[in-house]
Amino acid sequence: GGSRRAIGAALAALRLDGAVEAAGHGRLRSTGAPAGGSRAPLEQALLRQIEHAAALDKLAWRSSVQQAVGNLRDGLVRDGLAPRSADRVRAKAATLPMVALLGLGLVRLVAGMRDGHPVGYLVVALLVIGSMTVFLFFRPVRFLRAGQAAVRRARAESGHLAPEMSPAWQTYGA
Fold first, then answer.
1. Which of 94, 98, 114, 125 is the most exposed place for a label (fewest CB within 10 A)?
2. How many helices (DSSP H) and strands (DSSP E) are in the chain?
3. Distance between CA 83 and CA 89 in Å, rounded?
4. From CA 143, how far away is CA 84, in angstroms rounded?
């Protein structure tokens, strides 16, 4: 779900652990409660920023939080669960045949218009191909099959922790 979800999950874990509480006006405050076990690096970075009175909407932009999220992302990439830069380039390169088809269609459109042939269906086809090409080119690559499979496994193994099952958070923890 990206950095926003990672930060949200880490903040929820800190709140459930009793390490932070609402301070009003879009801020959290540290309770000074002892750590319930070892904290993840992202939780540590967030807690340090909260102790320095950083506003919630500013937490994601702090360098220590960005570095912790980057390290988390790097670990997912290293484990084959998130896309690498090469995967993103490969996804963009996959649109090249559609660009070639669009170019050929434009040549046919010009030739058809010049020769007085009907080109209505060709115009519609070019609009569909063009919009799909733009959509696929700019669509972010967020998931790999291995990452999706890992999420499915985690959901299946932890189904008893789904909110609709009303899990005992004090028993299971964050």
1. 114
2. 9, 2
3. 10
4. 10
Enter the tokens of residue 3.
Answer: 């950095």
CA distance 16 to 13: 5
50 closest CA partner among 36, 37, 62: 62
DSSP-based three-state secondary structure for 18: coil
Distance CA 51, CA 29 (A): 7
Which residues 6+ apart lie within 8 Å of 76 measured at CB?
A: 82, 147
pLDDT in tens, 36-95: 567 899 999 999 888 887 788 888 888 999 999 999 999 999 998 888 888 889 999 999
Core vs surface per residue 4-43: b (16+ CB within 10 A) or e: eebbeebbebbeebebbeeeeeeebebeeeeeeeebbebb
pTM (2 d.p.) = 0.67
Backbone angles phi, psi at 21, to 5 degrees: -145, 160
Q: What gap in Å lies between CA 57 and CA 114, rounded to an integer?
A: 57
Rounded to 10°, the helix 120-138/96-115 angle is 160
